[in-house]
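Take a look at the protein record below and flag anything odd:
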Amino acid sequence: MAEQPTHPTGTNTSAGGPPPASEPTSSGPKKSSAGIHGITESAHYSIEEMGPKRSLQTLLSVNHVDGFDCPSCAWGDPDPDHRKIAEFCENGAKAVAWEATRKRVDVAFFAEHSIADLRERDGHWLEAQGRLAQPMHLAPGATHYAPITWKDALTLTADRLRGLADPDRAVFYTSGRTSNEAAFLYQLLARRLGTNNLPDCSNMCHESSGAALTETLGVGKGLITYADITEHADLIIIVGQNPGTCHPRMLTALEEAKQRGARIIAANPLPEAGFARFHNPQTARGLAGPGTKLADRYLPVRINGDLALFAGLNRALIEQEDARPGSALDHEFIDRYCDGFEAAAAAWRALDWSRIETLSGLSRRRIKDCAAEVLAADSVIVCWAMGLTQHRNAVATIREIVNFHLLRGNIGRPGAGPAPIRGHSNVQGDRTMGIWEKMPDTFLDKLREEFGFDPPRAHGLDTVDSIRAMRDGKVDVFIGLGGNFAAATPDTEVTEAALATCALTVHVATKLNRSHLCHGTEALLLPCLGRTERDQQPSGEQFVTVEDTMAMVHASRGRLLPGSPHLRSEVAIVADLGHTLFGDDLGWRAMRDDYALIRRHIEHIVPGFHAFEQRVRQPGGFMLPRAPRDSRTFPTSTGKARFTVNPPTAHEVPPGHLLLTTVRSHDQFNTTVYGLDDRYRGIKGGRRVVFLNRDDLRELHLHDGDLVDLVSVNPDGERRAPGFRAVRYPTPRGCAAAYYPETNVLVALDSTAETSNTPTTKSIVIRVEPVSLTTQPTLRRMSS
């Protein structure tokens, strides 16, 4: 067993390496989103990375039926007949340009830069160097990556996997960008080896959503469609989500809903530009007119106060029903389709309003005003993202949202239902394809029937447990299919040290990132095709499929020539590794040569994929079944939709401390940072800033612009992120915010959500320590 690493001292600056030497400036939050600035930013970044011709060639193919799916977020598409020529947002354009850049990281680059040199660079610089051009190998004790042939790389990986004392000493991680076909082959490879160690980025984002929805409704996905928002919903509640930055195309759908007369309530600790006025860059009103005011109500909910907010809404609905029977609840729906109502109703009646107000940070009157909007709406949608899922009580919060829907029968009718908005483009599809450490026996039985081997049944390791296992010397081989594991995960120093205990780390990637420098004794970088590139195999040009956040499955076809002759598709890499390991026992080569064979296996194993090949070739693809939506059928343990009792809680914060939530900048997608500005929050030229309430600044004897360290307080010790600029911002009192991955160093590995084991990245108890009260430089405040 490897030596146990000591607990980190807390001096690590971020998962992205040392902080860049920058002096960020602040001009305060903006009051509108998109507009002409979105167009100019998209064009500037695209042309800089791809050039004019390549930019047109790619951007006009994004999210079209004969093109490729955007490699950014998982937001759904309009019907094919209603898509615009430019069916992408600013961040989508940057994601395409980031991947389709003309820059290359080749053999000469790695000869020039040692591992030690690259570790001194921040994550933004690393990814900005360009596309990985050929397979690279870091030999034991070597200081530089050196070129290796594909044959030797695959043989090396297969030899290490074949030589394991136990298949569970391997971990197979998956990014949410991986296609359905690659994900299916990847889980097949791991289970053929004999392990269910299949952690993925779902473990860190919407695992809480899946756990809560499966328990209460029987399906771990959202229940809405694009048309539910644009054509049917009377009220849309957006909570714990920043669509203007994380899902910008959602703003167009919300604008359509507003023009139809729908009401929108936004609940979030930070006022975000996407909640305010939307200047649609594809309309005259958006470019030259006043734009569209999206949110009718804004609720500045306290960080981690969402459970109390929905408990308060549910109590208000029960009070209304008690005062005027028949006026608030859908008793026909409750009696026919639900169980557990009486216990939940008794718990709501017993709630103390003063405690709801304290935990949520919202007044009783404000919550009851929202309840009045609910009562006036026949169909209600609740959308959420990581602002809800990454807390200790995340699963309870989402169960309470399900309660909210059940009370008024807002399940299984147009314009109604829960809507977890997924982040990465195919993270939902990966799970559908079997990328999960706890796949049910029904899936494993079908896998056995289809391929003739018995898959392992013991549950495997999720992301957090994989880090613990590596830390404890229980993992020899780590393989990452995309993603930036070291930057995306919590407890940065522990994670980086854990990866170093492996005998071999293998990363299938398009670009160099921080994870590639947190290597095992030996390491491989295997460069793959991007979503934008043509995938030519012996049977002809291939396409892959993805599943969006609304359970629509559709095709994606790259249009660019591969950026290097050494690139292979993710499907080909996994299939070739399978063949090298096992020979052609499962038809690995045939599946590599023709992806239609993979889809044929999928339709035999995964529910809802009948006639997969024919249906996915139809414009727009097809929708997967979701029983609660389709027929008000609930495949839960009782066969009914389940009311649950979720006592309101919130994170306890000691005196003199704050509750920190992590956020993305507008120039960022997940761990990928496109630039050092955050236009919507008024930050320019740097990322190491912490947003603080004016009164908290005063109480801490700090000024706007002071240089501070952030120190997280955990049962197992403190962790430190040094060198942040304090920025006065309209957050709720006692609440702070800062960008990730810079603040992942503050998140304790053992601080996870109950049931889902998701890291609590959105509720970190911190102490803010001034670096100097008198001599430090001050953040310049620009005029708005």
Remarks:
- The chain has four domains: 25-30+652-770, 40-99, 104-204+426-620, 208-420.
- The longest helix spans residues 306-323.
- Confidence is low (pLDDT under 50) at residues 1-16, 773-784.
- The longest strand covers residues 717-728.
